[in-house]
Amino acid sequence: MPRLRIGRKPALILGSAALLVIAAVGGGAFLLLSGGEELQYKTQAALRKALPVTAAAELHKRGVRLGAPLRCADLPGWTRTKMRVSCTGMTSDEKPVEVIGSGEQETRRNYYTILVDGRPVVENASCLGADCRKQEG
Hints:
Blueprint: H1 8-34, H2 44-61, E1 71-74, E2 82-90, E3 96-104, E4 109-116, E5 119-125, H3 130-136
Antiparallel strand pairs: 1-2, 2-3, 3-4, 4-5
């Protein structure tokens, strides 16, 4: 049976092309499995700063009016990779509002929950307010 002989230059070209295909397929598989998501807010400070604005916008969209801006603070146990923020306030008709926001570096996911008068208005949403429009677009 005759053997196929291939020169050094074509072998290097074929090898390089194969590596590129493997890298592209691997990268595509990673993006597919990870969802290609990015954290909206990459630091605890950014999450704490944005949460009162995005939560107020979400509540407004749902017909809930706040009596004053929400006040936010870091939740105990937060870390650089597991961000946790809580905001509190009152509606214009004096019902308590609690907002909890989290971000996980490992999963690159955000979760938000909003309670009004102890009842969930938003549960484990991946975005709030205008941030949802950014993700859709």
